[in-house]
Write a structure and sequence with these properties.
Length: 135
């Protein structure tokens, strides 16, 4: 399932919108590589690395502005990174495309939409109230 960012509500923080757009592009590229039988591991690693950096950026902002539900949001990031690591490890060990493709086509887009509409929306609004729409 290709992610198109215009299908999702924008966040009140520009940095989140930019990083979410990058995520969507990397996810779509990884999906295409898998579907076309291309070398997908570099795409998957780029996607994972982006998630690590993006989550760290969000968490840094949440800590800087003392976002009360920070521990819950961070725990969700950790859970998702764990799922990514498991998928990468399985794909590297077996070369089986099916589980990682299902993960990218179904699990990740479902999670992404829910996460944007709930945790990220609340976080971005809180940050906006604290600091404005800063990058």
């Amino acid at each position: 399932m290709t992610i198109v960012m215009r299908d999702y509500p924008p966040m009140a923080q520009d940095f989140m919108n930019r990083e979410h757009e990058d995520f969507a592009n990397l996810l779509n590229a990884a999906e295409q590589a898998l579907l076309m039988g291309e070398a997908a591991l570099p795409h998957l690693n780029l996607l994972y690395d982006h998630c690590v950096k993006h989550f760290a950026h969000e968490e840094e902002e949440m800590q800087r502005y003392h976002f009360p539900p920070y521990p819950v949001h961070k725990a969700e990031h950790e859970r998702v990174l764990g799922m990514f690591r498991d998928q990468l490890a399985n794909f590297e060990a077996t070369g089986d495309v099916s589980p990682v493709l299902e993960f990218l086509l179904e699990t990740v887009p479902d999670w992404f939409g829910q996460h944007l509409r709930s945790m990220d929306r609340v976080t971005s609004q809180f940050l906006f109230q604290q600091k404005g729409d800063a990058a």
